[in-house]
Amino acid sequence: IYDAARKLRFGETTTYGELAKRAGHAGLPRETGAALGANPVPLVIPCHRILAAGGKIGGFSAPGGSATKEKMLAMEGVRVGPPPAAQASFGF
Questions:
Q1: Is 42 one of the catalytic residues?
Q2: Range with the poorest average pLDDT among 17-21, 37-41, 42-46, 77-81
Q3: d(Cα 43, Cα 3) in Å, to the nearest integer?
Q4: Which has fewest Cβ within 10 Å: 9, 30, 59, 69?
Q5: Residue 76 burial (CB < 10 Å; 0-12/13-18/19+)?
Q6: Average pLDDT rounded to a whole number, residues 68-87
Q7: Which domains, from first to last, does the chain contain?
Q8: Which of 1, 5, 45, 47 is catalytic?
């Protein structure tokens, strides 16, 4: 799991389920989340780039939790959450 997470590039995200699949553990998103929750080096193994299903932020074990995860993603140019209202009305 950690090796697959380390392959994610700056600004690239994936879901726990997709990361599990990439690591050869398809169908184990919760176990993937548990492994990342025990990540001893969150900056070396960039678990902040792993999102919950549906693009939701999910948890983060580093200090500050999900708020820190969202800030780190924003620094990489990743926007998490629903689109602004004007964009939502056009379906993108």
A1: no
A2: 77-81
A3: 13
A4: 9
A5: middle
A6: 82
A7: 2-79 (1.10.10.10)
A8: 47
Tokens of 49: 């780039």
Residues 4 and 44 sit within 8 Å (Cβ to Cβ): no
Q: What is the pLDDT of residue 64?
A: 92
- For residue 43, the model assigns a pLDDT of 82
Burial of 35 (0-12, 13-18, 19+ CB in 10 A): buried
Pair of tokens at residue 7: 């392959």
Given pLDDT bands bounded at 50, 70 and 90, which one contains residue 80? confident
Query: Residue 80 CA to chain centroid, in angstroms?
Result: 10
Could you report how far apart the first and last alpha carbons of the chain are, in Å?
32
